[in-house]
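Sample intake sheet
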Amino acid sequence: MTILIEQPEFGSQLEEKKVPFNANELILDGGFVVPKTLSSDDEIFEVPDINAFGQSFRDYNAESERQKSVEEFYRVQHINQTYDYVKRMREEYGKLNKIEMSIWECCELLNDVVDDSDPDLDEPQIEHLLQTAEAIRKDYPDEDWLHLTGLIHDLGKVLLHPSFGGLPQWAVVGDTFPLGCAFDESIVHHKYFKENPDINNTIYNTKNGVYEEGCGLDKVVMSWGHDDYMYLVSKENGTTLPSAALFVIRYHSFYALHRSGAYTHLMNDKDKENMKWLNIFNKYDLYSKSKVRIDVEKVKPYYLSLIEKVSAFNYIGVNYNFDTYQIT
């Protein structure tokens, strides 16, 4: 089934802006505009009461076969995600040297991917990308950078595909959390960290661990997965997306932070500013998930135009034009 979503005509202006601009708006080199003033009092998107399975969103205690597999996923993830493991993965995948693929090709590749950690949706991931982006686009028609962020925020899940190494689910999806410091109890299924080797490391199991208070989240080693990978891809290719977009991409699965307020002692002023956008984005990322399908061919031209706007990524001295990211 195809859902018809009200779309702004390309090149036209809607009467109402959801985020007002002012004289202090920030103009990015890539042509994207990020207003400093945020207002969401008149947002259109309505948060649904239940997920695609008829249950509350992110309810990890609901009795269902889906929940059993989700809990098993987190058991394995919490045991295997260690500080040393993430360091190795970031070094390996930070090389960006295995395959070249366009953004839209990656979106289509996600037709074959279902996220085992997600209790709210079991549809292919391209559906989630478009649901998120289209919901944002409806409420924030002028923030094209945020539309594109919605489209690409989960593209790192291609790591599950054989073309990208076929990593296990626990190394790609699920809630993310810092390594090198104590595991906060707000992290979902926290009980399984008792089998993580880092739990017995006296350097890692304190509040600050290897970090200093206020050091900034960019200094913090996060559990390895699609968030950190897509952040590395975007950053290393010299994307012209604003820092708020990169913050959203890297931390949108960091629920202990933006749902429970944990680890705020590690944030710096820039993180706190970008959190405003992450909090806005999170509503669309989480609550736009449904069984209703998006007409891909109808919305594709618009997103291809945004991809083109982020043109000319640089990678090891080679220029890649328009919609091409270099992705390992």
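Comment: The beta strands are 2-3, 26-27, 33-34, 99-102, 293-294, 313-315, 318-320, 324-327. The chain has a mean pLDDT of 77.
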